[in-house]
User: Fold this.
Amino acid sequence: MIRRLLKNCHYFIYHVLSVKFFKILHYLCAPNTFGYYMSQKVLLNAKEVNIILHRLACQLIEKHTDFSNTVLIGLQPRGKYLADRIAKLLREDYKVKNVQLGHLDITFYRDDFRRGEKPLEANTTQIDFLVEDKNIVFIDDVLYTGRSIRAALTAIQSFGRPNEIELLTLIDRRFSRHLPIQPDYRGRQVDVINNEKVIVHWKENENEDVVYLIEK
Amino acid sequence: MSELSVNHLLGIKYLNKEDVRLIFETADHFKEVINRPIKKVPSLRDITIANLFFENSTRTKLSFELAEKRLSADVINFSSAQSSVKKGETLIDTVNNILSMKVDMVVMRHPNPGAGVFLSKHVKARIINAGDGAHEHPTQALLDSYSIRERLGEVKGKKVVIVGDILHSRVALSNIFALQLQGAEVMVCGPKTLIPKYINELGVKVETNLRKALNWCDVANMLRIQNERMDISYFPSTREYTQQFGVNKALLDSLDKEITIMHPGPINRGVEITSDVADSKQAIILDQVQNGVAIRMAVIYLLASKIKQ
Assistant:
């Protein structure tokens, strides 16, 4: 009995405490500790992102079955990576044949033109198919105020009149909406205060799949 | 994204390489926009633009107006023929009267060189020069370079000859600045009387033999003879000019390579360029017109983004 207890203690000391110790050490050594820079916290790691992507892909298949009348549209700039990844999963892992993927840039439809310090940077729009009467799934990484989605709803009208538009986001920031817009498929819902920022890193661009919560 | 280094587009000589790159990249996006089923974006819905044309224009005026409307700006048009300019009003007074109606941007064509620069010093609106006398026509030069970039991949290292009435041409001067800025080699070709005396100081080659010029170049930009600006006779007859400096299919076919033919319009068919050349695959004249709208949308968008609320 005592031996068993000691063994458990041993496990506790060597595994739990050491992990905590290294985490604390890592925190103290990080350049942004002590308020010099912003602090950051991992919301989702690569494994969690992967599980969520698979779930989202399955939810899409559940609703759209063979995608014969459905198109995926990644919103530029950051939604592009998520859309590419979901499309790849659908094609390769779930063997869906008719996945049509486009990228939509909303720069010229935004409502904050001339209101910010930084000029708005345009990105490429690539929609090589007709959206008339199609079921569209907008894909973006983080849903915050909903203004980008509002712009995307206007922008997509330039390509025709879709039958239905849905929204898929990896991160849904609760309680921060400026407009009555909600996702149909969400990866993870998070409560984030206004001076914090959610940043999604993708393997294709930043060499890792991870979602950070960053204090500005 | 960087922004334009200038607040007005008065001439190519005020721009730097980065500005031209930014305008071209923005124009790429607008070119995609104007090929959509609905060709309009709402970016400039709270901007009013006045098109002041103190000199005749068809293409440039239409192109600017279309660009403005496709950006959702409110547009007012003015041409000197039906205005109080004829009653003796000064340029600043005319423009200030228009600006008091809350206009944010002015697109101006004027017969006097430097009119745009003058206006930019005296009024608050952003000025876009749509041609000032024989001085500059920056948007035309930008769309010409953009069309070369589209056809040949890049402008850098390309050889461009500008043929015709260099002396009276604002297109020639702006093109020389724009092409040199992007690293192209420029040659001018025409009758000696129509080539400015000190053109060498701009670092361009001069050639009076059209065949030699065409054999040297990758792109030939054919200019119109500007009879309306000529107070004396610069060459014996139009027929003789055509024989010496007109491009025809037989001449193009006899060259060692296939060159690209450009023309800023309006074309005088059978004078500087024959119909079979103007309508051939080598000519990118209509591409230039289409690119003109995209380039003007880009310029207006980038200048408007500098107007803070």
Q: What stands out?
A: The beta strands of chain B are 48-53, 74-79, 105-110, 126-132, 159-163, 185-189, 205-207, 219-222, 260-262. DSSP finds eleven helices and nine strands in chain B.
